[in-house]
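Anyone up for a design puzzle?
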């Protein structure tokens, strides 16, 4: 079971993983629209007090997937020049699945915040919901760790990566992808 949850890339081909990943991207985008969640970065999820359309959520997820796939492909080619982009695309699509479920923590709209300048409202909310905020934070951290573990395992399989250089390049790719996604969302005005 652990192998299935952390290393599906060793067992299934991209022909199986890509359709599953696309279906879950659509489901995750639906979760984002229903739960007022913005996937506004490769490793980011924010809840909003405004309605999030399915189109917006789908576009955010698509941008994240493209940016992350391209960044991993570039560093993957540095590790192994036979790295295929389709393998990394399947990796990214599958790795993001746990992150989509994080949106469901806001199914009731509890964590939707408006203007960040309303400090008192935020303080009141935090003091009244401290336990649930701690559980939310820990849960999202766990889902993010799972996502990164899936990404790294898929990256290793896709590139046949070994050693410190591969780990460092993977880390650089994630950081660059996060920055590029933020820049993309800034210019698209999300």
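Challenge accepted. My sequence:
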């Amino acid at each position: 079971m652990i192998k299935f949850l952390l290393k599906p890339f060793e067992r299934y081909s991209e022909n199986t993983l890509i359709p599953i990943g696309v279906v879950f991207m659509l489901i995750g985008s639906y979760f984002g629209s229903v739960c007022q969640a913005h996937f506004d970065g490769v490793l980011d999820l924010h809840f909003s007090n405004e309605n999030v359309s399915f189109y917006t959520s789908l576009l955010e997820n698509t941008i994240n997937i493209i940016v992350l796939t391209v960044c991993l492909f570039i560093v993957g080619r540095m590790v192994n020049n036979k790295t295929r982009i389709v393998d990394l695309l399947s990796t990214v699509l599958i790795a993001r699945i746990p992150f989509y479920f994080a949106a469901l923590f806001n199914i009731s709209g509890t964590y939707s915040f408006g203007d960040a300048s309303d400090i008192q409202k935020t303080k009141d909310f935090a003091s009244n919901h401290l336990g649930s905020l701690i559980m939310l934070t820990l849960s999202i951290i766990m889902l993010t760790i799972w996502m990164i573990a899936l990404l790294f395992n898929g990256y290793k399989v896709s590139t046949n990566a070994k050693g410190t250089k591969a780990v460092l390049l993977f880390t650089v790719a994630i950081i660059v992808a996060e920055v590029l996604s933020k820049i993309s969302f800034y210019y698209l005005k999300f």
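A detail worth pointing out: The longest strand covers residues 37-38.
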